[in-house]
Design a protein that fits this description.
single chain; alpha/beta; 7-stranded parallel sheet; two-stranded parallel ribbon; binds uridine-5'-diphosphate-4-deoxy-4-fluoro-alpha-D-galactose
Length: 328
């Protein structure tokens, strides 16, 4: 298939693009490099430097015909979405609608969209199923949910075949692609930076949650398993329908458990400090991915947290070595 991957210079987008190329697909990456890195775009993909909102129509016309679009490009920091909502409504929603219009105009009928667990907000019960109420607690989740609603109506009215994948906490690395953000806020890469001595310590945001050890619990999914789900979603998309799937490992780990696993995998002890809760953080987020298993035939292979951390560690260490050996 010939595929447009928006956000293919970012973390998940670059891993999925790598996987699609391995499977023999042709990949064109559209990315404005606002948060991604040009080096992350896998060799073998064509790269177009541009914005989703302004440039998708032109790319679909000039580089097509395309069989499908995988739309990763988005703003995705919960805290920033609270302070700068305009960035999120424009970057995620206005640009997302432009992408849907451009697809209809160009006759591209298949979309795989990166949605998020943040669309559910604070869950009534875990594991979270797709029929759970959607009540996002921040603009990031609200903008992703808004696009999910738009996709449903475009699917019904225009015959789009769409699949939204609601990711829980994505981690790990695959094929030389991993987490490498200019501004890092995610737990595992930050802990590994502390292990490398690139930051003085790791802060635990809150030890008074109603969980076994008092720290927040999350469901960490290996990015390679996530990539496999995108491939299955592409195959499953059906004209006129919008399907939604949660993707996680189905198991929750506390912040303390993640830190302990990182210490064990790296063999390095590093300082840990206790800090206040981070605003907007739910206590426990765990996915039910049963629907993806039943309907897509998804079979996650790397559900062991030790493996997730080991793969992230290999990538982070290589990244640290490259940064330190680069000419200044
Ligand atoms: N945490 C710390 N210290 C840190 C960083 C994070 O204790 O230095 C804690 C957080 O408070 C949270 C957990 O580690 O309890 C995981 O935090 P992350 O920032 O790694 O991930 P989030 O759960 O906040 O966010 C992820 C995705 C979002 C998505 C959200 C919804 O990154 O895009 O899940 O489920 F919206």
């Amino acid at each position: 298939m010939r595929l447009l991957v928006t956000g293919g210079a970012g973390y998940v987008g670059s891993v999925v693009a790598t996987r699609l190329l391995e499977l023999g697909h042709q990949v064109v990456v559209l990315d404005d490099l606002s948060t991604g890195n040009r080096e992350a775009v896998p060799a073998g993909a064509e790269f177009v430097h541009g914005e989703v909102g302004a440039d998708t129509a032109g790319v679909l016309a000039a580089h097509g015909p395309f069989d499908a679009v995988l739309h990763f490009a988005a703003m995705s920091l919960v805290g920033e979405s609270v302070t700068d909502p305009d960035k999120y409504w424009h970057g995620n929603v206005v640009a997302g609608i432009a992408l849907l219009d451009a697809m209809c105009e160009a006759g591209v009928g298949t979309l795989v969209f990166s949605s998020t667990a943040a669309t559910y907000g604070e869950p009534d019960r875990v594991p979270i199923v797709e029929t759970a109420p959607t009540a996002p607690t921040n603009p990031y989740g609200a903008t992703k949910l808004a696009i999910d609603h738009a996709i449903t109506s475009y699917a019904h009215a225009r015959g789009l075949g769409a699949v939204s994948l609601r990711y829980f906490n994505v981690a790990g690395a695959y094929g030389g692609a991993g987490e490498n953000r200019v501004v890092e806020t995610h737990l595992i890469p930050l802990v590994l930076q502390a292990a490398l001595g690139h930051r003085p310590d790791i802060a635990i945001f809150g030890t008074d949650y109603p969980t076994a050890d008092g720290t927040a619990v999350r469901d960490y999914i290996h990015v390679a398993d996530l990539a496999d789900a995108h491939v299955l979603a592409l195959e499953a998309a059906e004209s006129g329908t919008h399907r939604i799937y949660n993707l996680g490992s189905g198991e929750g780990f506390s912040v303390r458990e993640v830190i302990d696993t990182c210490k064990q995998v790296t063999g390095i002890d590093f300082p840990v400090r206790i800090a206040e809760r981070r605003a907007g953080d739910p206590a426990v987020l765990i996915a039910s991915s049963q629907r993806a298993v039943d309907e897509l035939g998804w079979r996650p292979q790397r559900t062991d947290l030790t493996q997730v951390v080991a793969d992230a560690w290999e990538y982070t260490r290589a990244l640290g070595e490259r940064a330190h050996s680069a000419p200044r």
